[in-house]
Fold this sequence. Notes:
By secondary structure, this protein is an alpha/beta fold. The chain has helices at about 10, 30-45, 60-65, 100-105, 110-125, 170-190, 210-225, 240-255, 270-280, 305-310, 320-334; strands at about 20-25, 50-55, 75, 90-95, 135-140, 190-195, 225-230, 235, 260-265, 270, 285-290, 300. Strand 2, helix 3 (about 60-65) and strand 3 form a beta-alpha-beta unit. The protein starts with 7 loop residues before the first helix and ends with a helix.
Amino acid sequence: MGYFKVSQEESLKINQLRNSEILVTGGTGFLGKWIVDAVTFLNDNFSFNIKLYLLARRNSQHIDNIISKRDDMVFIKNDIRNLTEIPKSIEYIIHAAATPDNREHMSNPIEIMDIISQGTKQVLDAALALDSVKKILNISSGQVYGTLRSSRISEKNIGILDINSIKSIYPEAKRYSETLALAYKSLYKLPIVQVRPFSFIGPNMGLDKPWAINNFIKDAIKFKKIKILGNGKPIRSYMYPSDAVWWLLNMLVDSQSGIVYNLGSPEGISLENLAIKIRSKLGNDIHIEILNMNEDDSTFVPDIDFIKNKLAVDIKVNIDEALDKTLDWATRIL
């Protein structure tokens, strides 16, 4: 991989993670791959000596190719709902199990709800048996904010979820997981932090996933066209994963238990302008078609003032650089 890099001076910010053991559930997913990259970089370049455990239901050839050559990483094949215990030496947990792919939410909603609700409970029960757990990051979702009309969504915003829509399966389950985590924090004093991710873009993203930017990139490279199903007005932002993982590592060290943090870029862009930007980078022979099949004009962009002030983190990779890096990677694999 080799995409994650920080300076030695920057690494001092997370010096507390030296010689620690970290568990990542959903460890073969997109964020899991980037966490592997980050730990590999820190261990190989700055001798952090982190032991990383990756828990997931399915093996990933990409991850297997990396960890098969290393003794600082361990893959645990298990359904999160069947988890009963984890190595007692683990000090940090990043609980990221459950796919954000809305096709799976629609086709198997009951299982998705069960993975999120029961999976979170199993992880927290297992954490109670740890010798010295220092921080648990519960990776929720920015979708818990529901429908909002604010230009940027802060951690204090309360949106509206349509309880009559199957599309609310995932955010409702994530809201429940946050409430469950709060109960464990209150009752058992577990050091739990809630993290609400927004949208990401970067190498190793699933180009077959059903999100607009994934389809834009794949179709522009393979077919010289970009098809926008709606009116092109929805505004989204895209965080580069090296920034996301750097923020997560800072949360493991500096965040306060019980706090909620947004994880995303505040740099919003409409889908139409995103398509135009991709075309300008790949070549003006790409045709953009706006189908106007809906009138969606929603905004899904986080306010990150709170986390910037609390943890002194910021966006290092802007949308142009993130697109350049992603397009270079995608062009090579498609």
